[in-house]
Amino acid sequence: MTDTLASPNSAPQRRQLKADAAAALLKRRYASERLFKVLGLGALLLTASFLVILLTNIVTKSIPAFSEHVVNLDVVIDPKVVDPEGKRDSATLLAADYASLTRAAIMSAIPGIEGRNPRRALTSLLSSGAADDLRERVVADPSIIGTTIKMPLLFSDDVDLYLKGSSSVTSQENGSSDLTASDVKGDITLTGAEGTFAKLVAQLESENAEVSPETGARLLTPLLPSRLIEINGGLVKLASVTPTTATGTTLIPLTSSGVAKAGSWQLDTYAQPESRRKSSDQDIAFIETLRDKGAIERNFNWRFFTSGDSREAELAGIRGALVGTAWTLLVTLIICLPIGVLAAIYLEEFAPKNKLTDIIEVNINNLAAVPSIVFGLLGLSVFLNFFGLPRSAPLVGGLVLALLVLPTIIIASRAAIKAVPPSIREAAIGLGASHQQAVFHHVLPLAMPGIMTGTIIGMAHALGETAPLLMIGMIAFIVDVPDTMTDAATVLPVQIFLWSDLPEAAFQQRTAAAIVVLLGFLFLMNGAAIWLRNKFERRW
């Protein structure tokens, strides 16, 4: 009786327990979904942050490479140097010594420089390409021979780096008392009132500067930051300092040895010791003198896009690599596009379904995952060693990249053909068209957007490849721009690889700039693929 009366109350209790368990399970499920969303968003933000950091780093490093510094000088086109016999023929003009004219121009810009080393330092500020630019101008216009022209002359890479801020003055302090120079050039002594250089002496004591046993002066060794004094239109590099006097060597001759009033002379301190800088104090003195005269100008570096590779960083450009890349991709496209599309059509529409076609399909899928360097080894052994094709040529590079891209194009083309509804084929055949006519007149045009998208993505993949091209010799140093697909050439990814291995800071900047150009091409190609897909995509 008791069990009978209690049984009606037991069922609702069990249902209540099941409802609580279901609510707890649902709560845990929602919590898991929220956690998954948070983790997914966190992964996306982490990936995006790494990408932003990478792109920011590359772009920041590349910005200096897109500009160059030149010095505008009056260049005398001496007929005795350029054309002593007055022939005005191209052979004579091309063979002339234009470097002597550029050296004379920069020597006249800063007169009074004596001594072999200072004169050599002054002329070495110019790039070897400055003479080449002058030669091109004279050959293009021989009428300027015998005249004086204003010519922008290219600086060397070390000067260019200095002007872009790789080394700078940390502090400039005006003189607090009168200062007298003992001479205008050579080794001179600067004498001031008591305590004129007391602050500088205290700084040198804190830097543990050596003390001269004879005079008790603090010595400025090459391991200490350089101190220079601008006085009477000249520049003096200090060698030793006492509270009242300073001795040093004139880097720029003084205009007079008179008394420099307080506030008219200036003490400059550089950020790094001379031993740790590419530009010496003498170089900086010349550069700053030219800058004070308003002769230095910063221009866009068109040379980076119009010149080939060079051992001199300021002359190195990517034109040869761009042309080599264009030839290589042209060969790749001519070979892999028709072969890939025809292979996809045959396998998808005409090939019988048997073990042989299954083996072919499996191998195509496997080839798409083979490391790219394997294709380079294949090109080395077959195209170079067996067929004897020219080494480091876009023809061979295109053949190798065609083998690399071909599986991708076949797979993408088959997927595009398969996406066309069977009703299109059936309708064409029902109206009397043959199977071949149905495929080429109806299916293929509808699948072409997908085929072109896959082709562009495959070509973008080929554009970024380096390893297979290294195996066929396209790592060689190539200065000339290739005219045909059989000329020696390099490609943009290999050019980036070559520059990245060079220690000069200017080449590191050009490496980043070349990466930006390569990324730009990749973005354009992928953008074109997206545009084609969106514009021509059909929905059934």
What does this molecule look like?
The chain has 540 residues and is of the alpha+beta class. The protein has three domains: 51-167 and 279-301, no CATH class; 168-276, no CATH class; 315-536, MetI-like fold (Orthogonal Bundle), CATH 1.10.3720.10. It has 19 helices and twelve strands. Strands 3, 4, 5, 6, 7, 8, 9, 10 and 11 form a nine-stranded antiparallel sheet that branches. A three-stranded antiparallel sheet has the order 2-1-12. Helix 4 crosses helix 6, helix 14 packs across helix 16 and helix 18 (492-500) packs antiparallel against helix 19. Residues 1-6 have low confidence and may be disordered.
CATH superfamily name of the largest domain?
A: MetI-like
Q: Choose one word for the global shape.
A: elongated
CATH topology of the largest domain: MetI-like fold
CATH architecture of the largest domain: Orthogonal Bundle
Please tell me the total number of domains.
3
Number of helices: 19
Structural class: alpha+beta
Helix fraction by DSSP (H/I, runs of at least 4): 55-70%
Mean pLDDT: 88
Rg, please? 37 Å
Main beta-sheet strand count, sense and barrel state: 9 strands, antiparallel
C-alpha end-to-end distance: 71 Å
Low-confidence segments, given as residue ranges, are 1-6
Q: What is the C-level CATH assignment of the largest domain?
A: Mainly Alpha
Question: What's the β-strand tally?
Answer: 12
* Proportion of residues in extended strands: 5-15%
